[in-house]
Structure to design on (941 residues):
C-alpha cells in the first residue's frame, strides 16, 4: 500500500498561526514568574581599553538592587567560551582561537562588551543602577581598518601579532599555468559588507532554578537549544538532565541567535542559581547593535583567467575577512565565501587565500547567507566585467560556463564548512537561467524596451545573477513521533524555530505517513525536555535534516500501526489502509479502528506482551546526510535609477530557484520573499558605519535602515526541481537563497541603467546607496 | 526620571483597569508586564519598528513612545481584543493566515493593529496605499508581499 501525498507539496496554512495572530504565543519576554529579578548589563562605551577599575559600591547600595557582579565575582565560573566550530582539516592552516568572556576582565575589545551586571526588582531600577557604577578605562587605539590591522601596532589580543585570527589557502588545479595560457586576465578589488540581522525580537534569557526539583529551566531566544543545555550543564556542574532549555516562539533569528554562549546566557543562569530566584534579561535595541553578533566586511583582490571565448580557465582570490574581537564560530563565514565563489560554474583552477582579522568591533558569526554573499559578489562581478571586456552578452558568458547537467555529483576539490569536500550533489542550471530570462523578458528588454525608455529619458537597466547555495549539512537531527490516545500525533525535534513554519511542514510529512490531518499533528521544537539530541537551526538545514528525521520516525510509527492493526484484525498488513485517523481493512466495511484507540491498545494495563515488544505507537529516529545538498537559483531584476538623486525603483524582480522537492510552496515563497528583502537591505540600505575609534555611528533603527514595504519589491517566483540524492525526501534547503545574489544583481542592473561600464565606472562594492552612487559616479560629472 | 506614582483608570479591550503607575512607566511595559497582555510586542523602544502599535482612542500609536500615565481615562485596543478566541479570528487575522502573511509572528500584532485602523479609513485600498500604510511597521521575515496580499484579501472580505 502507498503513502498518500495529499499534504506534502501543498500550500497548507500554518498550524502555528492562530496562536501568533491572537497574541497568545509565548516569546521569551512573555515569561513572568513570581519573585523575578531583572538584569541590566553595563557595557563598555569604548572599543579598546585596559580596565583600571570598576567600582560598584554605589550601585549595590541603591534601593531595589539585589546584586551587582563584575568578572572577579564569577570566580572559577569565569572562563572564555568554547570554540563552537573548529577549523576544517585544511593543510597549512593558521588559526588563533580567542573566544568571548562572560564579563570583561583586564581589557575590553569592542564597544558593548559587558563589564558588570545589575540584578534589581525591575528593569527600570537595574538601569538606574548602571549609572551608579564608576569605571576607569585606559583607552587604547582601536583596530578598525583591515589592512592597517595587519601592519599597525595596535593589537586586539596582545599576543596575536598582526591581529591574524586565521589564514587559509585552498586550491584546485594549477592557476599559474591557467593564467599563462589565458587570452584574458581581469583583476579587480571588491569590497562586500554585510550587516546586522536585526530580528524584530532582540535576544533574551530567563533562568529559573527550582531548588526543590534540582532543576534549572532556561527560556532563551537561541537557535540551538540542545547545545545550549549541554554547554550550560557542563559549566554549572549539573548533569544535562537537570537543565531544560526552552526556545519558545522566537521572533526571527537569521543566524546570530545560533551563536552561543553569549555572555548573558552564561551570567543569568549562574545568578539564578546563586539567588534561587528567576532572573530575566531582555536585550534592548541599542544593545542589539553591539551585543549580538553581526556579519561585516571582506576585501577581495580577485582575478579571473579566460580563454578567447570567455570560458573560465581559473580564478585567483586573496581576501581579508573581519572576524571582530573574538572568533568563537571559527571559520564558517570566510570558508563559505571561499567555497561559494565557485558558484554554478566550471572553474578548472582556483587559488584562494583568506586572512581573518581580529578587529575592535562586535563578533562576526553567520547571518543569513553566512559569507556566501561575499563570494557570489566576486564571481558575478568578474563575469560582468569579463562579458563587457570580451564583448559577450552577460547571460551568454554565464551560460557558457555553467556546470553541465551530466557532471553531477560535481566535486570542486576543496573543503567546505562541514569539513567534507565541496561536492554538488545534483543540479541542472541552464533551465533555471532560461526560466528567469523568460520571466524577466531579458531579450525583449535589451532589444526593444530599454531603447524606448532611454529615448524617453528614463534610466532603466536589467540584471541577472546566478548562485548556488550549500544547504542541509550534517551532522544529524532526530525526531520523536507518537500517536496520542486522543488520536492526535505529537512530534518533537531538537531544532529551534524562528518563523520557518516547522510546526506545519513537519506536520505535513507526518500527516501523509499516518493518514491524519495537518492540524492534528502537534509539533514541538526547541524544548530539551521533549527532545534533547540534535544540532540546531542553521545553514538552511531544518527542513532537510530534521524533516527527514521526522519522516523516518513517522515511517517507523506507520509500521507499528500496521503491525498492531494486523494483529487486531487478524489480517495481513497489505490488506490495511490508514486514512482519516483510522486503520481499516480494505473492502470490509465496519472493520476499522481509530489511531487513538490503537495507541491505547499498544499500552496494555494487564496481561503479557511478546518479548521485545515496545509500548505505544511511538518511534524516535535520526537522520544524518552524507553531505550537504546544493540548491541553485537565478535572480533577475529591472530597475529604474533617478540620475539626479540615485534613488531606485525596482520595476520587476524574479527568482527562479531549485531546492529539490518542495514541502510547502507557500512557506517556501515566504522564505524567498524574506531573503530577497534582506538582500535588498544589504545591497542598498543597510550598513554598519564604524568610525576610526571603533564606535558604531548608526546604532538605531532610525539610522540603520531596514527596508520597509516601500523598498522591497514584489517578487515573482518559479521553481525547477532537481531532487537531492542525499536524503529520502529529495529536499534541499531554501532559507538563505533569497538573500544571496541580490548585491551583484543590484550592481549589475544599476550599471546597466546608467550605462556605467561604457564610461569606465564599475560598482565593485556593496552596500550601495544613493550617496555612494553619487560618489562613485563623480568622475562622470 | 519621574518615579512619582499616578493613579490611572484605563479601558483596555473593554475592561477597566485602575492602577498606580510610575510616571516613567512606558505604556508598552504597562500592557505587557502589569496587565499581562503580552501580545503587544516591543521591537525597538524608539518608535521605529511599529511592533508595539496599539489603538488609542481609535488611532494607532506606538506604545513604546507613550507613558502609561497618559492613558488615564482613555480607551486602548490590543491584539488580544481583535478576536473572541483563536477559532474565531478577525478577518485581518484570518487573511494573514490564509496568505502566509507572518513567519516568526513577532511584528504581527503591531501590523494587525495598524491595518485595522487603515482598513476602517480605507476600505478599498490599492497596493500602493497598503504599502504606504504598512511602511511604518518593520517586518524582517516576510518581505511584506504576503502581508500586502493579506490586507487586500481582508479588505475584500470585509466589504462583503
Amino acid at each position: 500500500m502507498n503513502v498518500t501525498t495529499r499534504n506534502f507539496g501543498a500550500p497548507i496554512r500554518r498550524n502555528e498561526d492562530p496562536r501568533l495572530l491572537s497574541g497568545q504565543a509565548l516569546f521569551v519576554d512573555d515569561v513572568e514568574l513570581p519573585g523575578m529579578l531583572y538584569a541590566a548589563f553595563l557595557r563598555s562605551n569604548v572599543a579598546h581599553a585596559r580596565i583600571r577599575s570598576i567600582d560598584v559600591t554605589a550601585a549595590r547600595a541603591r534601593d531595589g538592587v539585589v546584586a551587582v557582579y563584575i568578572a572577579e565575582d564569577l570566580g572559577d565560573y569565569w572562563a572564555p567560551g568554547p570554540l563552537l566550530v573548529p577549523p576544517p582539516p585544511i593543510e597549512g592552516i593558521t588559526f588563533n582561537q580567542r573566544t568571548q568572556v562572560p564579563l570583561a576582565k583586564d581589557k575590553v575589545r569592542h564597544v558593548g562588551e559587558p563589564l558588570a551586571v545589575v540584578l534589581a526588582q525591575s528593569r527600570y531600577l537595574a538601569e538606574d543602577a548602571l549609572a551608579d557604577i564608576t569605571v576607569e578605562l585606559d583607552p587604547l587605539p582601536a583596530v578598525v581598518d583591515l589592512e592597517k590591522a595587519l601592519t599597525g601596532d595596535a593589537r586586539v589580543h596582545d599576543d596575536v601579532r598582526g591581529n591574524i585570527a586565521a589564514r587559509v589557502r585552498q586550491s584546485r588545479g594549477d592557476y599559474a599555468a591557467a593564467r599563462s595560457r589565458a587570452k584574458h586576465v581581469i583583476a579587480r578589488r571588491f569590497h562586500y559588507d554585510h550587516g546586522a540581522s536585526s530580528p524584530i525580537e532582540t535576544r533574551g534569557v530567563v533562568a529559573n532554578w527550582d531548588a526543590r526539583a534540582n532543576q534549572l529551566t532556561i527560556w532563551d531566544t537561541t537557535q540551538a537549544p540542545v547545545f545550549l543545555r549541554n554547554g550550560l550543564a557542563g559549566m554549572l556542574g549539573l548533569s544535562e538532565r537537570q537543565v531544560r532549555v526552552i526556545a519558545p516562539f522566537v521572533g526571527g533569528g537569521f543566524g546570530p541567535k545560533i551563536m552561543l554562549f553569549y555572555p548573558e546566557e552564561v551570567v543569568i543562569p549562574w545568578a539564578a542559581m546563586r539567588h534561587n530566584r528567576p532572573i530575566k534579561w531582555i536585550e534592548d535595541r541599542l544593545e542589539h547593535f553591539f551585543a549580538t553578533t553581526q556579519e561585516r566586511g571582506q576585501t577581495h583582490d580577485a582575478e579571473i583567467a579566460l580563454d578567447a571565448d570567455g570560458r573560465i580557465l581559473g580564478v585567483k582570490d586573496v581576501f581579508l575577512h573581519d572576524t571582530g574581537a573574538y572568533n568563537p564560530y571559527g571559520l564558517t563565514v570566510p570558508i563559505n565565501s571561499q567555497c561559494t565563489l565557485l558558484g554554478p560554474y566550471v572553474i578548472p583552477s582556483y587559488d584562494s587565500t583568506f586572512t581573518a582579522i581580529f578587529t575592535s568591533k562586535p563578533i562576526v558569526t553567520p547571518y543569513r547567507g553566512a559569507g556566501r554573499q561575499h563570494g557570489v559578489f566576486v564571481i558575478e562581478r568578474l563575469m560582468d566585467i569579463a562579458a563587457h571586456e570580451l564583448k559577450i552578452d552577460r547571460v551568454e558568458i554565464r551560460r557558457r560556463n555553467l556546470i553541465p547537467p551530466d557532471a553531477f555529483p560535481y566535486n570542486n576539490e576543496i573543503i567546505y564548512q562541514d569539513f567534507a569536500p565541496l561536492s554538488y550533489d545534483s543540479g541542472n542550471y541552464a533551465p533555471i537561467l532560461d526560466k528567469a530570462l523568460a520571466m524577466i523578458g531579458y531579450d525583449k528588454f535589451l532589444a526593444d524596451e530599454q531603447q524606448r525608455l532611454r529615448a524617453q529619458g528614463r534610466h532603466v537597466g536589467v540584471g541577472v545573477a546566478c548562485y548556488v547555495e550549500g544547504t542541509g549539512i550534517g551532522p544529524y537531527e532526530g525526531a520523536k513521533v507518537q500517536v496520542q490516545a486522543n488520536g492526535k500525533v505529537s512530534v518533537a525535534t531538537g531544532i529551534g524555530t524562528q518563523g520557518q513554519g516547522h510546526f506545519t511542514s513537519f506536520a505535513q510529512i507526518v500527516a501523509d505517513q499516518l493518514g491524519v490531518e495537518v492540524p492534528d499533528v502537534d509539533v514541538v521544537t526547541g524544548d530539551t525536555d521533549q527532545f534533547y539530541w540534535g544540532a540546531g537551526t542553521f545553514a538552511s538545514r531544518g527542513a532537510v535534516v530534521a524533516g527527514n528525521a521526522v519522516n523516518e520516525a513517522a515511517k517507523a510509527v506507520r509500521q507499528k500501526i500496521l503491525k498492531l492493526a494486523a494483529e487486531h484484525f487478524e489480517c495481513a498488513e497489505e490488506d490495511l489502509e490508514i486514512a482519516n485517523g483510522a486503520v481499516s481493512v480494505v473492502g470490509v466495511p465496519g472493520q476499522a479502528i481509530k489511531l487513538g484507540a490503537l495507541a491505547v491498545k499498544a499500552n496494555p494495563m494487564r496481561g503479557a506482551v511478546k518479548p521485545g515488544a515496545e509500548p505505544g505507537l511511538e518511534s524516535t529516529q535520526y537522520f544524518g546526510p552524507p553531505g550537504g545538498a546544493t540548491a541553485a537559483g537565478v535572480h533577475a531584476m529591472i530597475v529604474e535609477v533617478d540620475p539626479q538623486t540615485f534613488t531606485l525603483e525596482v520595476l520587476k524582480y524574479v527568482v527562479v530557484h531549485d531546492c529539490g522537492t518542495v514541502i510547502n510552496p507557500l512557506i517556501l515563497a515566504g522564505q524567498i520573499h524574506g531573503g530577497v528583502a534582506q538582500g535588498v537591505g544589504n545591497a542598498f540600505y543597510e550598513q554598519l558605519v564604524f568610525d576610526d575609534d571603533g564606535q558604531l555611528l548608526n546604532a538605531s533603527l532610525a539610522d540603520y535602515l531596514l527596508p520597509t514595504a516601500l523598498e522591497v519589491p514584489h517578487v515573482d517566483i518559479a521553481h525547477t526541481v532537481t531532487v537531492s540524492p542525499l536524503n529520502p525526501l529529495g529536499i534541499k534547503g531554501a532559507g538563505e537563497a533569497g538573500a544571496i545574489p541580490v548585491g551583484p544583481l543590484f550592481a549589475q542592473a544599476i550599471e546597466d541603467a546608467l550605462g556605467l561600464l561604457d564610461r569606465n565606472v564599475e560598482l565593485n562594492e556593496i552596500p550601495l546607496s544613493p550617496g555612494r552612487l553619487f560618489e562613485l559616479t563623480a568622475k562622470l560629472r | 526620571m519621574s518615579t512619582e506614582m499616578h493613579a490611572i483608570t484605563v479601558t483596555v479591550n473593554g475592561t477597566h483597569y485602575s492602577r498606580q503607575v510610575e510616571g516613567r512607566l512606558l505604556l508598552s511595559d504597562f500592557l505587557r508586564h502589569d496587565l499581562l497582555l503580552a501580545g503587544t510586542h516591543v521591537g525597538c523602544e524608539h518608535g521605529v519598528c511599529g511592533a508595539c502599535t496599539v489603538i488609542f482612542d481609535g488611532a494607532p500609536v506606538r506604545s513604546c513612545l507613550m507613558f502609561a500615565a497618559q492613558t488615564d481615562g482613555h480607551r486602548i485596543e490590543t491584539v488580544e481584543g481583535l478576536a473572541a478566541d483563536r477559532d474565531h479570528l478577525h478577518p485581518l487575522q484570518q487573511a494573514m493566515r490564509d496568505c502566509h502573511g507572518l513567519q516568526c509572528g513577532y511584528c504581527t500584532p503591531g501590523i494587525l493593529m495598524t491595518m485595522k485602523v487603515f482598513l476602517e479609513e480605507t476600505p478599498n485600498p490599492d497596493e500602493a496605499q497598503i504599502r504606504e500604510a504598512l511602511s511604518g511597521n518593520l517586518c524582517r521575515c516576510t518581505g511584506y508581499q504576503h502581508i500586502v496580499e493579506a490586507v487586500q484579501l481582508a479588505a475584500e472580505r470585509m466589504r462583503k
